[in-house]
Amino acid sequence: MSGGGTASPRHVITGIGAVAPTGLTCADYWSAVLRGESGIRTLTRFDPSGYSATVAGEIPEYTASRYVPGRLLPQTDRMTRLALIAAEEALADAGADPSAMPPFACGAVTAASAGGFEFGQKELEALWSKGGKYVSAYQSFAWFYPVNTGQISIRHGLRGPGAAVVAEQAGGLDAIAKARRHIRSGTPLMVTGGVDGSLSPWSWLCLIRSGRMSASPDPEAAFLPFDRRAQGAVVGEGGALLVMEDAERARERGASHRYGEVAGYAATFDPRPGSGRPPGLRRAITMALADAGMAPADVDVVFADAYGVPALDAAEAEALAGVFGPRGVPVTAPKTMTGRLLAGSAPLDVATALLSIRDGVLPPTVHVASPAHEHLLDLVRDAPREQRVSSALVVSRGQGGFNSALVVRAAA
Amino acid sequence: MEGISEGRRVVITGIGVVSPGGVGRKQYWQLLSAGRTATRTISLFDAAPFRSRVAAECDFDPAAAGLSRRQARQWDRTTQFAVVAAREALEDSGVLGQSEPYRTGVMMGTACGSTMSLDSEYALVSDEGKSWLVDEFHGSPYLYDYFVPSSMAAELAWICEAEGPVGVVSTGCTSGVDVLGHAADLIREGHADVITTGASDAAISPITVACFDAIKATTARNDTPETASRPFDRTRNGFVLGEGCAVFVLEELEHARRRDARVYAEVAGHASRCNAYSMTGLSDDGLEMADAVTAALDMARHDPAEVDYVNAHGSATKQNDRHETNALKRSLGGHAYDIPVSSIKSMIGHSLGAIGALETAACALAIEHSVVPPTANLHESDPECDLDYVPLVAREHRIATALSVASGFGGFQSALVLDAPPRSAA
Q1: Are A139 and A186 in the same domain?
Q2: DSSP letter assigned to residue A8
Q3: Which Gene3D superfamilies match (chain A) (predicted)?
């Protein structure tokens, strides 16, 4: 493993942009988190009454032209506009101006799950109902998986390495780790993370087929990870983008924020069912800690994957208790206020963890009234918990067997 | 990339291919070295209403390729290609059972994922676009697997007995090159010793043809499909859509040596750049592609003079062919004129995310056979494209170092360097 990366350039996270059902800026999102305010509601974007799942972490309607240049509106899916908003905030927060840097000094790696599906549905509708001539000239890229990386790179003049990573919902952490690799290899600045969302009827049907969606119509009771009443996941839209910089360079230019660093990371995959081999989540956590050169006791809080599916919650509770001991570390799931944002959730958890470190407060898990694993998990419920935070573990899983774990730590 | 390239080296020990013109690595090489083309009139669906009606299709019979009826029904064609190619690569390398599952990974590239299934399933659940509110009670039970392209990597992980890093890298038409670079980085950084990697795309479907029609990126040379893909030729007027898959077993060199594995080539360098210019357009100067080439050669510790073969992106659009020619001159200097440069898209079309992996396979096989595959259909070069594009006929040529370049929507520009197998330490 790479250890603490002693021989390689160190990095620091200097900017955060966040978009969530509870706010289109990092500050709005964070204050909603600390108020315990949930953005999960009955879908309004389309009439969900004919579907077996009806609630989502939907971002309320907003005037996109206030945030995104008008010429980009016809060529962007909703999630790409949100990504452009987050990227702009992250770079402004960092006070970084890529156009003033050497030509190939800045790159972007984002996470995706399924691309711009709402845009894609409109074009499929045009194709099938009217004919091929009615398909948009933008369809060739507006839906595709790396569209956010491409649009962000164009908007901000990022000409260094660029890619999108897809590992279902675990890909957000994999993207951030890939960005760290690019910094270590000599790229001074990376924009990384993920903003995702897919709330059109066509994507909704695909999501329902995952078999993991909560059928509860009650926004307060639909998504209850680690609760005895848990009955499935609620999805939402949003995520976060971070500016990650070479630490030396950030210091030289006097970057005003030093939120922290990615101290450790690992990804594993579950074995084939029936193989008799153990699942991979606990191993991902252990390896991420080893990569960070940290012991379990060094971790101040865990941002859980918190699926909301009983068997998956039990597996995560056991993995965490196995590593940290029963109730050995505070565990929280602020995604109870946003839903699972596909590839955007884990990056938003990383952003939230960095804000926890900054402000010395653990964000709450809301709506969980009947904890299912109290003997294993010290769940931060209902109200924020003030305490010093110098490091956090973020856990993320993707359907199919993906496990990723990432440790953030206060900047040295 | 000197920060992580010290120490651990990465080699290719197995190759599997599903390509237009044939399933299997041997058939693939026969096609390329013979300079035969596999482009034809689209047969996978009725393309009559569309502007461009040619494509390079795979003659792929799931049963003959070893898939069960259940697998053929459940998996999108992209995943079917990937599974068949992965099985060939694993058998070729003999690595199965010889690598520790925790140290084994899967990284796949794709531009379009399960587009073909999503296109046809959408038509079904929306009553051919009549209703925005699609019907929950129609459509495949496997829709979620089509929704997320990561399902392809998950299927391969089980086949490869991989419990290490698993995922998909997508950068549109450079996916097949970038996923290899990413997988090699993971091995160098110590996350795995063996990674099955490559790229697959099978998107010859109405929505794909329509979206390229809309921007006239594909050729409309429908009357002569066999000669429709003409990279660098003055008569070229767009690319021919293709499909296919190439999968590799990448392995840490010492791991491969310990089990006496046959080595095709070393993955010596990779770099990618964004042009930050346009989602579809290219500026003529080729600056970003040139920088990717320079960075990949630096990582491999090669001078331009050491490049023996360039596998071009060569998509046969005017803007690409000129952009790429300028990028090669900029990065390789005067040597650009001395190095054979060929585009196999002339024979197998442009299979979007998969093509970078197919081209890397062509480079590895070119190194093995000391033969440069030709650019078919090149009779008279565009005057602005004045390199040695190896027209029509393959050429015997010893290759110690091959460079593969890729360019795609989103502005992505990438380069990968393969070296002939390192000599044994003994």
Answers
A1: yes
A2: S
A3: 3.40.47.10
**H-assigned helices in A58-138:** 78-94, 117-129
Q: Rg for chain A (alpha carbons), in Å?
A: 20
| Whether pTM exceeds 0.90 | yes
So what's the pLDDT on residue B6? 60
Please report residues of B whose CB lies closer than 8 A to that of A343: none
Q: CATH for B2-114+149-419?
A: 3.40.47.10
Same domain, A292 and A150: no
Residue spans of the domains in chain B: they are: 2-114+149-419
Based on the structure, what is the number of domains in chain A?
2
Indicate which residue of B270, B350, B363, B385 is catalytic. Answer: B350
Query: What residues of chain A lie within 8 A of the CB of B207, using their CB?
Result: 123-124, 127, 135, 139
The residue among A252, A281, A312 that closes a domain is A252
Identify whether B385 is a catalytic site residue.
no
| Average pLDDT value over all residues in chain A | 96
What residues does A266 pair with on adjacent strands? A405
- Taking CB atoms and an 8 Å limit, are B190 and A107 in contact across chains? no
Instruction: Evaluate if residue B216 carries a pLDDT over 80.
Output: yes
Residue A299 counted as domain residue: yes
CB contact under 8 A, A124 and B207: yes
**Nearest Cβ partner of A268 from B113, B134, B164?**
B164
| Domain span at A365 | 261-409
Take residue A82 and report the two structure tokens written for it.
């949100």
Kindly state whether residue A6 falls inside one of the protein's structural domains.
no
Q: How confident is the model at residue A412 (pLDDT cuts 50, 70, 90)?
A: confident
Instruction: Let me know if B369 is a catalytic residue.
Output: no
Are A148 and A272 in a shared domain?
no
Contacts of A121 in chain B (CB under 8 A): 122, 132
Annotation says B182 is catalytic: no
Q: Does residue B5 carry a pLDDT above 50? A: no
Q: The CATH number of the domain where A83 resides is what?
A: 3.40.47.10
Q: What is the mean pLDDT of residues A393-397?
A: 98
Identified catalytic residue from B313, B323, B363, B385: B313
- Is the CB of B274 less than 8 angstroms away from the CB of A146? no
CB pairs under 8 A between A and B: 291
Chain A residues in contact with B142 (beta carbon < 8 A): 209
Per-residue pLDDT tens over the stretch A142-180: 999 999 999 999 999 999 999 999 888 889 999 999 999
Using DSSP's 3-state secondary structure scheme, residue A344 falls into helix
Q: Are residues A245 and A207 in the same domain?
A: yes
